Please model this.
Amino acid sequence: PEIVDGPGVDPTCFAPWSEDTKFFQWEGREGPFKIAVVNGFVGNTWRIQMVKTAKAFAEDPAIADKISEFRVVSTGTDAPAQLGAIEDFINQGFDAIVTIAVSPEGFDRVIRLADRNDVVLVPFDNVLDTDAVMQVNEDQLTMGRMWAEFTLNELAAKGVTSGKILEVRGLPGNSVDRDRSIGINEVLEASDGDWEIVSVVGNWDDGTTQKVVADAIAVHGEFVAIVGQGGSNGVIQALMDAGHPWVPVAGESENGFRKAIAEYSDEGLKGISIGQSPGLVAIAMKAAISALEGNVMPQLISVPLPVATYEELEDGLNYWSDLPDNFFTVNEFPPCGVNISGPAIMSQSETDN
Amino acid sequence: MIERFKYSLRQNRGFYGALLGLIVLYLLYNSLHPRGFSTAVLIQNANEAVVLAFVAVAQTIPVLIGGLDLSVGAVMTLASCIASVLVTGSPAEMTLGIILSVLAGTMFGLLNGLVVVYGRIQPIIATLATGAIAIGLALFVRPQPGGDIDGDLNWAITNAVFDFAETYGFADDGNAAWLQPIAWIPVPLIILTAVMLLVWVPYRRSVTGRTAYAIGSAEGAAYMSGLPIARAKIMAFTLAGFFAGCAGLYLAIQTSSGNADVVQAGEYTLKSIAAVVIGGTSLLGGVGTAVGSIFGAFIIRIIEFFFRINIGSFSIDPLLQTLFQGVVLLVAVSLGSLRLTRIKNRLDVFR
Amino acid sequence: MNFYKSLDSDTKPIIIALGFVIMILIVGTIYTLSTQGTAPLLRPSYVLQQLQVGSFLGIVAAGMMMVILLGHIDLSVPWTLTAAAMMATTVGGPMAIPTGIAVGLAVGLFNGLGVAYLRVPSMIFTLGVDQVMRGLMVAHTGGYAPDTDATPLMRFLAAEKIAGVPVAIFVWIAVSLVIALILQRTGFGRSVYATGNREAAAYLSGIRTKRVIIGSFMLSGACAGIAGVLLAGYSSQAYQGMGNPYLLPAIAAVVLGGTRILGGRGRYLGTVVGVILIVLLNSVLSIMQMPEAGRQIIYGSVIIGMLLVYGRNQAVTS
Amino acid sequence: MANGSPIVALKGVSKHFGATKALENVDFACHSGSTHAILGENGAGKSTLIKIMSGVLDPTSGTMEMEGKPVSFSKPSDAVDKGIVCIFQELSLVPDLSVAANISLANPPKRFGLIDHKAQNRIAEELLARINCADVNPNSLIRDLSLSRRQMVEIAKALGKNPKVLILDEATSALTSKDVETVYALLGQLKADGIASLFISHRMHEVEALCDTLSVFRNGTHVETFAKGTKSDADIVRLMIGREVGSHYPAKPNRPRPAPFLKIEQLAWERALKGVNLEVGKGEIVGLGGLDGQGQKELLLSLFGVMRGLQGTVTVDGTRIAPNSPAKAKADGANIALVPEDRKTEGLMLPMSIADNLIAASFNKVSNGPFIDGKKEDAAVRSAVEKLQIKVGDVENAVSTLSGGNQQKVVIAKWLMTDPDIILLNDPTRGIDVGTKQEIYKLMRELAEEGKAILFYTTDYAELIGCCDRVSVMYDGRIVSELEGDAITEEAIVAASLNIGTDGEAA
Ligand SMILES: Nc1ncnc2c1ncn2[C@@H]1O[C@H](COP(=O)(O)OP(=O)(O)OP(=O)(O)O)[C@@H](O)[C@H]1O
Ligand SMILES: Nc1ncnc2c1ncn2[C@@H]1O[C@H](COP(=O)(O)OP(=O)(O)OP(=O)(O)O)[C@@H](O)[C@H]1O
Ligand SMILES: [Mg+2]
Ligand SMILES: [Mg+2]
Model:
């Protein structure tokens, strides 16, 4: 692509990450386009929801006739397989490839190939440490900061100025885990309170998180607040099982977590839920099409953080009390015309498939 | 010669079955691919398969002695993390880095061998444990994914001979007439073949290599026959480490980086076992060859290729791909049991 | 010392592992004393909580031991466990738990058929089955939007307490009694050892070795199913990938308990001690906030170290 | 006895396995150009002796000299380097390698530092030709050869190492009679070449035919060494067993032939069985004779439900049976027991305890419902040990700690526990000493008297003659001759085995 001056098209949807964000422009071409989604691992709810969202969005009337061929593959946690799949789609003459990278590094070759063949490559969610491709993500650092700020505010409101705060980390070595943790700790350290931060590794997995939180409670006694990156259902479960009093908890956007916040916020579970949305895939697809049409696009597209605090939860709107715990509530992004809600994707028995 | 082939055919059914399967699947894939039978497709396929092929070769040797090496994926990861730190700078520094990363894998393999032989611990469980250690070390070397491996190296190694020559400016930037017959061959395939010729073939035809087969077939007999058991076992794991090191090195160059990914390490270990079995090597030891495992690795990859191409109404729902892969794996490994139908003496089942 | 020498080779690992458990507790306590001035590891509540968490691993390991005694292995445990949990919550109501166990039994039966009749090495067959189960669960979640909430009975069995003792521990004890009884006091159990030692000889002794193999895999599947149901109860929900953290620790626990990985030898008590060891080790490493790198290295070194200690007195026989 | 200084001499050698004293202060010597037999009961320490000589085991104490110089071997290849080559009781061939590879296993011919397959094949062909086994293709896998062929390859392999001392530990126990002839000739040749051969066998007639010097071992001690012909057979047996032994075989009862209990008609399987007809009555011992590999083993395995695709009928007591597994064969209705060919891999779970092995075929007999009754189990094990006089320390010890003969008794005892009606014996006395053999013969006769029907395959003519009420000789998958009473003579059996008088010659 060519590096051009902004502003880009449709800034409410394709918001540039920061003021320094570059803008890209590809030569516009006629649709419909061939688009592929190259996923890595499949086998957790988030990824399943993402794949379903991608499929549903490809059939959405808003873009359906812009797509001539749409394919989704999951390559597992296997860098060469993912690189291979991307290269294969380039070889097959696909116009755009949307991907969740298995690693923030290592895509030099496919980036080069995509460039040579004028293919639009759009990493999202786990983005690459490069500014050579157009990417779509939520701001993980900000997410970490918001969690910590919310927690500190709630503690301040309760008049708590010291104590142990439990940080539940995600998958070791992952850049999302790194960024979120940096954000969290930055804010906590900057505060005046006298906090002892205990950190455990929950792998973003409900079961592991529950176990390590239960462990931490057994060893450390009470915490004044918990900041968890994921596996939030596990945090709640561990608190309940240990009979730990409700405290402010920051966490992800699982339906179960939001249900718990809604139910117990009066008793002290002052919660904030910010999610990395599986719906990001739709924005990435939309961005790819927009780029193919020749629009000016930001290199790094920032998708607004879907925040919901205990004060903002509303049954049937941003959580569903009658639905299962472990789908991700935030899925739609109205400014982008992405209106595929979590329950619509994850809770209707499919008859047509 | 013909007679020898006849015996070889009878004694290595699994191997020839894998070869046949590979040929059929690959021809089918290429004929369905919009750009089938082109260099670009071959390069892509080779790049995708070569790391797994190396890991499968690594796995083969411990399997031949009747063991399993559950650390190959982890050693690969360790080597790739080391390479991501060392393979950078001047050509001399890069060369040294390349040597050191493969050496690291080899030394780790040696450690495995020593633990198995002198610690008298079953290979499968010893390497389960040392695999954790290797991952720990990899995380230590590279707590976050990253690294800056030379971009030219990455480009040259992951392309055809022509691009290699072009990148490094020899043979008339790849246009020399003498280069043309081989200009289309993917570099990864050349590397794989070269390593096999230089390491596996001599090993196979050495007493140490033969001892590995003998151990897997009948360890007591091998010992009684005065074969160097301890040396052969240590060598088997050392070579496994070496090949895993090669895998790691290639992975690092291919991705220009290192990533101490526990899950990926585990996935490679398991896939290596599958590749070895599909390639006709018996998990009981004594029977099989590393070349078969390479075929096995390619077969595993090719099956995934089919998800990407348009096969009309046979297209598989993305959420059913995993299921399909599992079923194909089960069917592939169950094909071996066709031999059971020929068995007339039920005791032969236990061999 | 004489006492130590007089122990038979099946008992020694158990004693050593017990010693190691005590050592871990001591090291952990020294750490907590020096950092926070308390010794929470020695409190009954902590121990009970570890046993509660350990009971899931313990039940998986009990089943795993049955197949390891045969010289086989069951790599399908992670997704068998997950499938059992997910199907149990999907069905819900009083049939939830029987459904979960039935899923385990069915997968075990399938594994057993593949290993006994097709004679595919279990290492690879169960690997394939694990992937198939994963595929099925991905399709299930993706296609049918199943209910994932645990039933009250599942909650009770996994998370509640009787007289301060988690019910899960009683479930573990019950499973343990059944497995130990099977292994020591039934013809089936003895046949497992015989088949694990030498299948041809067991077959020619008129032991129905295929049934033994199938039975063992079914027990392994059933144990995975029970563990899945409990785990769903513990977390109040079933979720994708919930079984993944249980495979390697279960194998390690069985082996650290003195069961021979090639089959034929091992005592059930050892597996129990092995489970406790692994659970405590994980917990103490987590308490010490050991970074992942150090954790993996320690984990591996402990296994190697202990096996070296077990094996040191073994004689080489050609 | 040969003159001059010995080529190998052991001085004061002892070998202890824990409490077991396998060898105790043994002095032993052998000389070049001599064929030297080592005799002794099972567990006398013969194998242990030669394992020490060939570097497999370290002596607990004592020294060894070769040609006057002290030597010590830390591994088998050290001994091979010095010229001591051994053919072990348990074969040392690698099943998944080719014949040629096995023959040059540890020391293959090389070109450019790599194994030279052509030269390897040439060597194999030469050596095989030397022992009349040119029919063995050097490219075939050991796995695909019969036991007797394997044993010949083993001999070829040993010869290929150019031994100064060649040790054969029961190397002839599985050979066909034609091969035995070859081995006789070979040993004569080696003797002429000045090579020392040590020969361990439980077959007295072989020892007599081959050896010039005999050494007797008993309970780990060297009893005596003497030249052939200086002692009578009875004396030798007394030296071995330490007591007088009476008649070899128990008396056969003199009574009319009983009604057939087990009846086999036109039994055919693959190419090994081509329509076998045979009857065994209660109380009868019927011998199966013939050269090795004429279908005898397949016949026994067929009856025991191991073979697939059988044709023909088998009836027990008038009812037709068609078991498709040993489990069915041993169950009610058939009540068959089989003592298999290879006790180490088919008869026993070696690392398991003696008790566990004993009850392995009869869990139902010691159980209440699904549960094993500890008391019943102990009682059953004790009575089995007593009945067969198995020499055990503790029944909880691994069965592998027993000597060969006692291991075989465990296999037999295991099957007697099931109270079978029909007992199939596949060469039960292979590798077993005279004393134990006699006990087994006696036991067989007792069992027959109790009304069991016994079908007994052996490669030893003397056993057929001594033990059996009737002998059926097999040739090429058929029974070619049935001998009864006084008609059972060595000449008759040999003639039938070679199928003289019909089409072919011996295979
Ligand atoms: N590895 C071992 N561990 C314990 N005891 C052993 C071992 N090997 C041999 N023995 C014991 O040593 C004694 C001598 O055994 P050895 O094998 O030398 O007997 P043998 O004379 O060859 O008998 P056979 O004629 O049955 O082959 C026996 O009592 C045997 O049980
Ligand atoms: N030139 C040859 N002539 C005859 N037989 C051969 C020759 N080369 C190999 N063989 C036999 O054919 C089989 C397969 O041969 P291959 O070359 O694949 O194995 P190999 O490395 O030679 O094995 P080994 O070292 O065990 O002989 C082996 O059993 C081998 O012994
Ligand atoms: Mg070879
Ligand atoms: Mg012996």
About this structure: Residues 501-507 of chain D have pLDDT under 50 and may be disordered. Chain D has two domains: 8-241, 259-335+422-427+451-507. Chain D has 17 helices and 24 strands. Residues 100 and 122 of chain D are 8 Å apart (CA to CA).
